[in-house]
Design goal:
The protein is α/β, with parallel strands linked by helices. It has two domains: 146 residues, 3-Layer(aba) Sandwich (Rossmann fold), CATH 3.40.50.720; 150 residues, no CATH class. The protein has 16 helices and eleven strands. A hairpin with a 4-residue loop joins β10 and β11.
């Protein structure tokens, strides 16, 4: 095994599901990892517990009020420096005392800190799919210029990373498409895979958040129920790996044991398999190009018995085609798609919008806007804000 210095980790979104899974893996390998920086939005209790366990150099709360409470909670004797605000999150992501940044902040809120880490040339583990959906072209260009190493930790994209050719440390993780015909992302189908589309008008928040296989946050759970998460992943895969929209397909696989497949020109298909546990892709990316224990048991194929596959139902999951349309249309469209989805999902979680109208709000938002191709991050952020306003207007014009 290659001798390596201890990696200094910055975990963005440390109290969320990606953050806690990352820290679980890191805690299993204290000889390999030092948790140097943790960030969260407003979960003071969660952050205080992590500070006690890992004693990071810096803890950042994006919410300034939460930072003040955290300072009081930790007390004056703590060795942890507490900082506040969104700007501080981006600053620590680019700090000299950090080697590896885990981009685990959900939604467009994680864009600025992810970009800061990339521009600083860090090893960046990408869980924030919205970063590539909103600003993929800018992020990939910034990585090429800075020498940042981007490693995917979404289970599907990490699976593709493992199955695609030419992924070596010597080439800085440069992706090769030699002989690749297409890639396939699998989807569980969420909680409504077999439910009648006519019945989706009465879906409750609890039902939408009850994912059959994965333990995730509320927003991403709703995205899984609408299959917008898979639409966002199609966009992410195309931009991360340099694929055409038509080269990225989706297949419903209810057991969630095969996460991604790559089909080659010679008729070969390679698949990456594993339990539905985010610690596996996280451990793969943290250790890459090596392997290490993730605390996840290997698959028992005999016990599993069968693997099922089916095409996604376009009537039940209209968000998937909306995402494909946006990908073909360009960055302005994908930024607006993501913004409208975040607004619509938030409205559903607050019981201000019916589940079956999430796709309608996104469609109305895209149709109402002019989508110039943004050239800078500031352009994208402006377009994002405009899309959110348009989406809120679309929701206001509808009954709950």
């Amino acid at each position: 095994m290659t001798t390596r210095s201890r990696q200094r980790l910055c975990v963005l979104g440390a109290t969320g599901s990606i953050g806690t899974s990352t820290l679980d893996v890191a805690a299993r390998h204290p000889e390999r990892f030092r948790v140097s920086v943790l960030t969260a939005n407003a979960d003071v209790a969660g952050m205080a517990a992590l500070c006690e366990q890992f004693t990071p150099d810096i803890a950042v709360m994006a919410d300034p009020g939460a930072a003040e409470v955290l300072r009081t909670t930790l007390g004056r004797q703590t060795a942890v420096s507490v900082r506040a605000g969104a700007d501080a999150v981006s600053e620590v992501a680019a700090a000299a005392g950090v080697d590896t940044v885990v981009a685990g902040i959900v939604g467009a809120a994680g864009l600025a800190s992810c970009m800061a880490a990339v521009e600083a040339g860090k090893r960046v583990l990408l869980a924030n799919k919205e970063a590539l959906v909103v600003a993929g072209e800018l992020i990939m260009a910034a990585a090429q210029q800075s020498g940042a190493l981007l490693l995917p930790i979404d289970s599907e994209h990490n699976g593709l990373f493992q199955c695609l050719p030419g992924m070596t440390e010597a080439t800085g993780g440069q992706r090769s498409l030699a002989g690749v015909e297409r890639v396939i992302l699998t989807a569980s189908g969420g909680p409504f895979r077999t439910r009648s589309p006519d019945s989706l008008a009465t879906v409750t928040v609890a039902e939408a958040c009850a994912h059959p296989n994965w333990d995730m946050g509320r927003k991403i759970s709703v995205d899984s129920a609408t299959m917008m998460n898979k639409g966002l992943e199609v966009i992410e895969a195309a931009r991360f790996f340099g694929l055409d929209a038509d080269q990225v397909e989706v297949l419903v696989h209810p057991q969630s044991r095969i996460h991604a497949l790559v089909q080659y020109a010679d008729g070969s298909t390679l698949a990456q398999m594993g339990a539905p546990d985010m610690r596996t892709p996280i451990a793969h990316a943290l250790a890459w190009p090596e392997r290490m224990d993730a605390g996840v048991a290997p698959l028992d194929l005999a016990a599993l018995g069968r693997l099922d596959f089916e095409p996604p139902d376009a009537e039940r999951f209209p968000c998937l085609e909306l995402a494909r349309m946006a990908l073909r249309s360009g960055s302005g469209w994908t930024a607006a798609l993501n913004a409208a989805n975040e607004v619509a999902v938030a409205a559903f979680l607050e019981e201000r919008l019916r589940f079956d109208r999430i796709a309608d709000v996104i469609r109305d938002t895209l149709a109402a806007m002019t989508h110039d191709q943004p050239q800078t991050l500031a352009d994208l952020i402006h377009h994002d804000h405009a899309a959110r306003e348009t989406a809120m207007q679309a929701i206001a014009g509808r009954d709950a």
